[in-house]
């Protein structure tokens, strides 16, 4: 293994030294592309193939894309405070008989940009207040699925969303626009995984928490907020009961 590692390092070193100036340009190009995509569509997934094509359009060195992408990830973290996290999904989170994923296996390897800044700093200096309605919608949906045990049938999810005034037929919500498209965006951003399950009564669509919703920071925040809501609700019920029996 040590010999293979040395050979691999030698190969990369040879390729990189062959283009000392160009490799810095390639790293900068990957960083610009990632930052632009994230600014253009916050939370979007960036496919590894897209980044590989940026590197290989002029250079054919075998190990160069991996080197450039790794260097870009390192600089994004140290300079911009972003983690470029790799997400890998080749099959649904739950593997049940009769289930088929709605996502393309070819799109499995991709990256998502996550801020490494402390929550209070991110809220003060980075967070886009114009996107607060999307954050609220994301939190509501993730909370519903979390309370359902991590996965929920499509009809049950819409049942709870309708109670919040969010109807699947609404194409012109004042803040979210098309509610269906807003929900689909959570699938594209890997907050949710959408799968089709075959049963005796036909096919059923299941929404399940995906990698980003299962991230420790998000998962912990959701659980804390739910606990607060449950605590306030419990206090309200106790207060009403005491008033009733006075």
Reading the helices and strands in chain order gives: HHEHHEEEHHEHHEEHH
Distance from first to last alpha carbon: 77 Å
Main β-sheet: number of strands, strand sense, barrel status? 4 strands, antiparallel
What is the residue-averaged pLDDT?
77
Structural class: alpha+beta
Q: How much strand content do the residues show? A: 5-15%
User: Quaternary arrangement of the chains shown?
Assistant: single chain
Uncertain segments? 1-10, 100-107, 235-246
- From the spread of the alpha carbons, the general shape counts as globular
Strand arrangement in the largest pleated sheet? 3-6-7-5
What is the helix fraction of residues, given as a range?
55-70%
Radius of gyration: 23 Å
What's the total helix number?
10
Number of strands: 7
Task: Describe the 3D structure.
This protein is α+β, with helices and mostly antiparallel strands and 246 residues long. The chain contains 10 helices and 7 strands. Strands 3-6-7-5 form a 4-stranded antiparallel beta sheet. A 3-stranded antiparallel beta sheet has the order 1-4-2. Strand 6 and strand 7 (202-209) form a beta hairpin. It is globular. This is MAGE domain-containing protein. One of its GO terms (cellular component) is nucleus. Residues 68-230 form the MAGE domain. InterPro entries: MAGE, MAGE_WH1, MAGE_WH2, MHD_dom.
Give the tags:
246 residues, alpha+beta, four-stranded antiparallel β-sheet, three-stranded antiparallel β-sheet, 57% helix, 15% strand, disordered C terminus, MAGE domain-containing protein, MAGE, MAGE_WH1, MAGE_WH2
């Amino acid at each position: 293994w040590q010999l293979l590692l040395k050979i691999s390092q030698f190969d990369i070193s040879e390729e990189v030294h062959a283009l000392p100036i160009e490799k810095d340009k390639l790293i900068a190009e990957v960083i610009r592309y990632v930052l632009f995509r994230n600014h253009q569509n916050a939370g979007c997934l960036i496919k590894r193939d897209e980044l590989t094509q940026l590197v290989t359009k002029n250079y054919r060195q075998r190990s160069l894309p991996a080197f450039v992408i790794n260097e870009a990830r390192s600089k994004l973290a140290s300079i911009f405070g972003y983690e470029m996290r790799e997400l890998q999904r080749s099959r649904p989170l739950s593997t049940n008989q009769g289930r088929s994923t709605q996502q393309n296996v070819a799109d499995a390897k991709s990256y998502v940009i996550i801020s490494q800044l402390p929550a209070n700093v991110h809220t003060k200096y980075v967070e886009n207040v114009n996107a607060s309605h999307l954050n609220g919608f994301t939190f509501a949906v993730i909370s519903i699925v979390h309370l359902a045990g991590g996965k929920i049938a499509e009809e049950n999810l819409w049942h709870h969303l309708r109670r919040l005034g969010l109807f699947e037929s609404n194409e012109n919500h004042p803040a979210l626009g098309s509610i269906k498209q807003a929900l689909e965006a959570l699938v594209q951003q890997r907050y949710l995984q959408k799968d089709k399950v075959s049963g005796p009564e036909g096919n059923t669509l299941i929404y399940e928490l995906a990698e980003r919703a299962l991230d420790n920071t998000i998962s912990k925040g959701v659980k804390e907020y739910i606990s607060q809501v449950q605590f306030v609700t419990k206090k309200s019920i106790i207060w009403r009961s005491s008033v009733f029996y006075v």
